[in-house]
Structures are given as structure tokens and as C-alpha cells.
Queue: 2 jobs
Job 1
Amino acid sequence: MVWQTLKRWYHMLGSPRYFHTFSSRVLPWLTPIALITLLTGLVWGLAFAPSDYQQGNSYRIIFIHVPASSGALMGYMALGVSGLVAVVWRMKMAEVMLKAIAPFGAALAAISLITGSLWGKPTWGTYWQWDARMTSMLILLFMYVGVIALQNVIREPRQAARAAGLLAIVGVINVVIVKYSVEWVQTLHQGSTLKLFGESTINPAMKYPLLISMLGLWLLYAVNVLIRARSEVEWRERRSKWVQTLIRTGGK
Amino acid sequence: MAFESFADFLAMGKHGFFVWTAYGISAVLIIASMVLALRGQGQVRETLARQQRRAEVDE
């Protein structure tokens, strides 16, 4: 039963045309939900959450730093999975996703580095340190940039997807290093205080706005990916009848 | 509110510069990525519509 359902989903979402119809139904409500959630979390965190007893108000950078960092890491995992499916099964939608997921992920990795550095100065006394967490995060940004660059350099889209897919798969190792760098080696960066399982060690008055802005930014990431994937699908399927009709009627 | 006044909110203790620069740069990058995605969508539609018109003229 479950297997059958999964197989049906795989085939449906693997079809560019089905994806296009599906995403045009999802976007009109996902977009406002993402924006409202993100703004709620940020306003709550910036103006209403209590200040930290040690850091004062500089800690409020957390409400964008942690959502951006976790988004960049999750996005890269999704990029790795798309890369694997694109390289092994040559699935068209995986190739599309490989292209759609990377840009916003790169932006989030950059945000993570910049906000982290601006938080580090008042807290640690330095903007930057070549320690494990920061260095591996910088490599994550380079991996994103590499995947995007490969796709732009190779003209033939299917070949580009193969090359970028391989690079995406290799880079997954780096995600593991980023995640565990704070536990394996001594770094300036603190360990995680937000736990999915078990008890978080962050104050609940700070935890809820953080979780809400995290959810909001992830949803906005999804919106960004859907928009990019739709244009890529329309371009790749431009000779098909359904895209031709779509253009002629100016439909969604 | 965690702040006494709006001026207090802007000052963020002594860390207004760090907090607001962090949020400002983040906003710019996020908005830019959204705008680029939407613009890409518009460009694909435009190109395809132009190709279609040209094909119809040729026929």
C-alpha cells in the first residue's frame, strides 16, 4: 500500500507537466503563508523576545542566523538527493530541481556567514576565525557556487545536470562536517541549543519566535524553488503542446 | 515589548549597528533572490511568446 502510494507520487512529481499544474495550485497560498510566518517570527524575535542576560540585544541576530544556516544545510541535502537521482536515474525533474534549489541556498549560506560574523564581533571580539564551523560553512557557500557555475558553463542541459549532480553528491560530506564540527573539535562556535528530540536548552521565550522564523524562511525557500523550477520546466518543455498552449492562452 | 521606546529598539543596547546591518544585508539577499526568480519566469514567458509569434508569421 505505502509502497504503491510512494511509487505513484514518484511518477506524478517526476512528470514535468504534473509538477507544473501542482505548483500553480500550491504557490498562491504558500507564498502569503511563508511571508506572514517569517515576518511574525522576526518581529516577535526583534521586538518582543526578552534580551539575553549575557549578550544583551546582539543575540537577536539569532532569529535570522539560525534559520538561514539551517536552511542552507537542508537545501544542500535536497541538492545532494536531486544530484543522486539525476545522475543515477536521469530523472528530468531531478535535473530541474538541481538547478532550482541552488541559488536561494547560496544566498542563505552567504547570509549565515555574514550575520554570524556580525554577531561574532560584539560576542567573541572578532568578525572571523578559521575554525572548523566557519571554514566548513564557507566551503558550503563555495559548493553552492560551484554547482551553479557548472550548470551555467556547460551548454547542453542534460550534461550540465550530470556534472553538477556529481559535485552536489560529493559536497554532502561537507554538510556532515558542518553539522558535527561543533561537537568533534574545539571551535569558537557554540553547540546547538535547539534540539528536535530531547530537551532544548534555549529559553522558551526565545525558542518560539526562533522556530517560527525558521519555518517561515524554509517555506519561502520552497516558494523560491517552485518559481525557479516552473520556469525551468517551461523552458525545457517549450516544444511540447501543453507549454505552447500555455503561452498562447497566457495561462498560469 | 522588550524595549522602553522606539529609540531604544533602534539602539539595541549598544549593538544596533551589528543587529541592523545583519538584518539589512539578509533582507537585500533574500529579496534579490526572489526578484531574480520572478524575473527569470517573466523572461522565459517572453522569449517563448516571441518565438511563437515568429513561428506563426512564418506559416
Job 2
Amino acid sequence: MKGIRWLMVLPFLGILGGIPFANKVTPYVLGMPFILFWIVAWVILTSVIMAVVYRFDPEVREEERT
Amino acid sequence: MNGALIIIFAFLLLSLYLGVQARKGKDMNLEQWTVGGRGFGTIFVFLLMAGEIYTTFTFLGGSGWAYGKGGPTFYIIAYGCLAYVLSYWMLPKVWKYAKEHQLMSQSDFFASKYNSPLLGVLVSLVGVVALIPYLVLQLKGLGIIVSEASYGTISSAAAIWIGVLSVTVYVMISGIHGSAWTAVVKDIMILVVAVFLGLYLPFHYYGGIEPMFTAIEEAKPGFLALPDKGMSVSWFISTVLLTALGFYMWPHTFGSIYSAKSANVFRKNAMILPIYQLVLLFVFFVGFAAILQIPHLEGSDADLALLRLSIQTFDPWVVGLIGAAGLLTAMVPGSMILMTASTLLAKNVYKVFSPSATDEQVAKLAKYLVPVIALISLYFTFRGGNTIVALLLMGYSLVTQLFPSLVLSLMKNNFVTKQGAFAGIIAGVVTVAYITLSGSSIGTLFPSLPQAVQDLNVGIIALIVNIVVTVVVSWIPTRSVSVDTEKSTM
């Protein structure tokens, strides 16, 4: 399950690759300009992704045993 | 004495007390002093790493950018987020190696991985040259915050002296333990202050977050997104990438990695830190709220947006709390920088040239270097003028030059030789210096390229030069060396 770490590529794709398409003020989402909402959404998703990676990463459990 | 001043002083004394008592029950050898005996759990490491994001620069500069530049400000939350993703992979490797080899500083890491104390000296010098302007910036910010928040009753110079003295005292006594304890107070303060201001001000002046943004969009259409030229989409992507790579290359941030007691500390932090840094969002909101309320701040005065709007809105005691939070955002990183710079000079420069020095002598020297570096920084703070601004712009790009040889050294088969690492870092650093001092951008260097390429962060060039030189130089000598070893084994 070390392959789970490939999920960590997603934040890079979402933030760096997505920004050309998200670079606009409207529509406002949750009160924020669209570009800001896009970045904030990815920041939160990143935390979720990292939690998933942490949960399934075999190295984490290996270390807990020692 | 007004209410604001009393509150600022109370917090100063509290952090001084916490900083000094942190020493209790510890035998302060260099390992205890500079990396906390490698015993910090998730919370302390979290706070030390978060300290890197919430500096005076983000407090004043984050709101100042939102006020003066608009959309491009959002890069600040983007690069931190990606840096934490990288940290999940990179930090446990660095930590494990450092623990096995009993390393104390970033330069130790290079010296040990490449088996070259001289490379350690080079890395230390690059680090110190980048750190001092960074410290000066914190001190300047501290002066501005305290003098504004005390309604001018304390001059900026007096505030800076008081701040530096307090930090010097607790760093000399408690080292990193002092930084960690003051970081606790600092983060609670900044959390409360930022969230409160970031919600209260937009609701108070505009009736909500969305009405505020709509009003700004009406007054300055497009200001909240990235412009077509200059800080455009390609500027954003290249800058976020570069700063994410450079994030952990600051010697004081790198050094705080060693203080953890296990590798899982970093993996846990990588989950929490992205969300935690969203606190910056509220700092941005303050800057945005100021745009239509105090519209006359020009140039570097934009950094005063948060303080001026708060003074206009609140009673002195609230301003005092803001001032105290600002003071702490300068003191915590300031203490880490002082300690790191002293450790680098004592252990990675002095010790290399006088190998007979005992560990005890090195530890003592490191502590006595703290006031020396503090005084040098004070000198630049009061007399630096424009040189310091140039150095500061360079700082981030300078430490980013350490990234290629560091990351490659974490790989199983590292092809980079010590000569390659040395030459690559020097080539990168010289390129950064040339570009910054001559004020070049990709646009001025290559005016015929398309706009999107011209807007790329110029640091990319230095990094490419660095990587090319590292690879080429690593390639040449290894051949002759491998021939040598063949001969000797025959």
C-alpha cells in the first residue's frame, strides 16, 4: 500500500494545474471570490488527502511498533 | 501609560518568564540547547514549524499585500500547503538520518551526507547571509507594530531594543526550549486575534464577507484575481513551486526538524498544518476590509493597513492585544534565527577551522555568539537602508539553492559528488545575487519571449543553472575517482 503516497500528487495538480482555469472573481462561493475559494478548497482537500495517506501508509505503523 | 501599552508589556514579561523557565531541569549542552535533546512531541514541533508561517511578515505583509496587490496574495496559502505535502515525504528521511548521525544543524547534514566539512562551511555562510536580513525584517516589523499599537508612546527604536534584549536573554538561557514555550503563547494569541479581526472588520464595515468582496470588485474590477501581466498565472505557478521547495531550506526551519522525537510527528503535522494555515485567510480579510476604509496608504505604507484600521475601529485594550500578538510573531522566529545562526557559526565554521575545540567550548561559543548576532542585526535594522531590502529579496532564493543537492542526497543512489554540490550551490547563489542586484526579470533578460514566460519567477533561472552545474560537475570527477579506486583495489 505504499502506492497510496501517489495521492500526494493531487494537491500539486489541483493548485498549480487548476489555477489557470480558476483565475476569476465570480461566481462567489461561500462569500469568497472564485479563485480564493478554489485555493481554500484545495487546502482543505490536502488535509483530507494527507489524512488518508497517513491512515494507509505502512511506514507509519512500522514506526509505531518500534 | 495607556491600556494598550500595559497589555503589550504584560505579554512581553509572560513570554520572557516562559522562555527562561523552559530551561528548568535540563543540562544545557549543545544538543539540548539547539535541538531540544530530540525530544519534542507533535505539539511543540507543530508550533515551531507553524512559527515559520506566522511571522511579522505575514501579519503585516499578508494584510499589506491583500490591501495593495489583491489576488496575488493568495499564493501565500498555496505554497505553504504544497510545502507540507512535500514535508510528509522529506522530513522523516531527514530526521532519521540526523538522529543516526547525531546532527545539530542544517550544515551538519550536508557535511555528513557529502562527507565534506567545507561544504558545511559553504552552506552555513549561505544560511547566515539569508538569515540576518530575515531577522532584520522581523525587528523592523516589531518596531512598527509596537510603536503603532502604543499610539506612538514607545518609539520604534525603543521597542526593537526591548524586544531584542528579551529574546537574547531567553535564547542564551533556554535555547530552543525557550522558543517552543513562547510559541505556545504566540499561536494562541495570533489565532484569537486574526480570527476575530478577520470576521469582525468585514461584518462591521460591509455587513459580511461577500458584501465586502462585491464592494471591492465594484470599485476595482479584477483586483481580486491574478492580472494578465506581471503577477499573472505563470508568476503564481512558478512562485508557489519555488517557495514550496525553499520552505524547509531555511536553516532555522530545517534545524527544528531535528527536535522531533519520532518521524511520525511530521506525518501527523502534514495533515493538520494545511488547514491550520487557513488562519492567514483572516489576516487577508483584514487587508481587504481596509481597502475602501483607509484608501490612502501608498507603497510600503500598505503594511500598516491592519494596524491603522484596528486603531480606527477599536478601544486601546484591543489594540494592545493586537500589538502583543505582533510582538510575539517577531520574537519566536527571531529567537530561532539567533540560535540557528550562532550554532552554524560555532559548530560548522569555527569548529571546522579549529578541530581541537571541545564540544563544551563550541556550545559556549554558540551561546556567546547570540548577543553578537543580535547586535549586528540591530545595526542593519537602524542603518541598513536599501542594501538590506536587496538582501532580503535574495534570502528566499538563496536558501532554495540548497534544495537540489539536499533532495538528491535523500535518494538511494545519489550521483551528486561533493564537488558537484559545492559548484551547484555556488553557481545558484551567484546567479541569484546577479539577478537581484541588477534588478533583472526574465522579461528584461529575454524580452522577446512570450508574456507568460516573461512573468515566470526569476528564481527558476538560478535553480536551473544550479541543477545543470551540479549534474555536470558531478559527472566529471566521479569518472577519474572510480578509475582511482579500481587501481587501488588491483
